[in-house]
């Protein structure tokens, strides 16, 4: 029996469904029932009938899935898979900003721990941040943790005062504009599509800035045959399936998220067999506040 067949059998036996982020290894995306960006995965998880959800992504995704679906068993194939940015918030600085602005809304990127979500008023993903923030009644917004996404939102929603901290995704922050520029010279017909977690020098070179699923739908609709992609390499699997006729170029060094890549087929088999790495979120005030922050996102994004 192949590993893939074993997973199919275990899924049936355990009444489990597999969700995977676009950044995980191709072989994991291949066995997943649903693949998507952070917004799609969080929304999808709330609609599934299965008893068990296997979340192939980093730890904030497992936490968010459990917070939104407390009655489900949520399994993380690799408990070590984490997102460094999800921890990059200075609580003291946050409190100072709250004191300074009476009408402040603290908006956290979904790439944050449950604790950080509990300090926030609403959560957002890169796919819904602009529309949610634009529609908030508050003028003053503290956006945490990603400074690059905050900078992009500030450009798109100039009517708001966007205050931010210093968090960043190392993979997108370290992407070099010179590399994108060099790819543009080599492939002058290519469109440049980048994720808003990239630094501002990279954003300036982009034809389009969007979340992973927004990049994918741009590619699906575009007549162009060549694309320079400024996000994690895992999206190549889906991009290639969507447009087998097109060519995709990624900057060097290749943008690879080590957390996402930690998840293997063996991990998926093991958690399905043993129930190991089950996410448990205590019914305490921190987690209740974090759930409200996520639920507000789902309501406001409708
Ligand atoms: P999206 O899935 O919202 O595009 O975000 C990318 C990301 O870095 C997830 O960790
Ligand atoms: Fe976190 Fe960046 Fe990896 Fe996304 S790509 S999970 S933001 S480290």
Plain-language structure description:
The protein is α/β, with parallel strands linked by helices and 302 residues long. It is built from 16 helices and twelve strands. The structure holds 1,3-dihydroxyacetonephosphate and iron/sulfur cluster (SF4). Iron/sulfur cluster is lined by residues 23, 58, 83-85, 111, 169, 171, 197, 232, 257, 259-260.
- Rounded mean pLDDT is 97
- CA distance, first residue to last residue: 43 Å
The biggest beta sheet, please? 4 strands, parallel
Order of strands, main sheet, comes to 2-1-3-4
Task: Give the ligands present.
Answer: 1,3-dihydroxyacetonephosphate, iron/sulfur cluster
H and E string: HEHEHEHEHEHEHEHEHHEHEHEHEHHH
- The total count of helices amounts to 16
Number of strands: 12
* Helix content, binned percent: 40-55%
Seen as an oligomer or otherwise, the chain set is single chain
Which word captures the global form?
Answer: globular
CA gyration radius, whole angstroms: 19 Å
**Proportion of beta-strand residues:** 15-25%
pLDDT < 50 runs, ≥5 residues: none
Summing up helix and strand content along with how strands pair, one would put the structural category as alpha/beta
């Amino acid at each position: 029996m192949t590993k893939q067949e074993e997973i199919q059998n275990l899924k049936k036996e355990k009444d489990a469904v597999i969700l995977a982020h676009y950044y995980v290894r191709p072989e994991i995306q291949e066995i997943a029932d649903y693949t998507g960006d952070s917004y799609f995965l969080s929304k999808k998880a709330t609609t599934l009938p299965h008893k068990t959800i296997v979340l192939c992504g980093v730890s904030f995704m497992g936490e968010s899935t459990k917070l939104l679906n407390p009655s489900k068993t949520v399994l993380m194939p690799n408990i070590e898979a984490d997102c460094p940015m999800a921890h990059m918030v200075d609580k003291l600085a946050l409190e100072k900003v709250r004191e300074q602005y009476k009408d402040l809304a603290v908006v956290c990127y979904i790439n944050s721990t449950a604790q950080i979500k509990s300090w926030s008023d609403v959560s957002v993903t890169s796919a819904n941040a602009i529309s949610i923030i634009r529609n908030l009644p508050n003028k003053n917004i503290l956006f945490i943790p990603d400074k690059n996404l905050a900078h992009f939102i500030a450009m798109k929603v100039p009517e708001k005062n966007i205050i931010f901290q210093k968090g960043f995704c190392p993979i997108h922050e370290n992407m070099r504009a010179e590399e994108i520029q060099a790819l543009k010279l080599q492939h002058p017909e290519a469109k440049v599509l980048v994720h808003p977690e990239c630094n501002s020098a990279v954003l300036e070179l982009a034809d389009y800035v969007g979340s992973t699923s927004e990049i994918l739908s741009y590619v699906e609709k575009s007549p162009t045959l060549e694309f320079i992609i400024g996000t994690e390499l895992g999206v190549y699997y889906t991009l290639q399936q969507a447009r087998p006729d097109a060519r995709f170029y990624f900057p060097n060094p290749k943008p690879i998220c080590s957390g996402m890549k930690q998840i293997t087929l063996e991990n998926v088999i093991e958690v399905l067999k043993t129930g190991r790495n089950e996410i448990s979120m205590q019914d305490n005030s921190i987690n209740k506040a974090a759930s409200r922050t996520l639920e507000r996102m789902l309501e406001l994004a409708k």
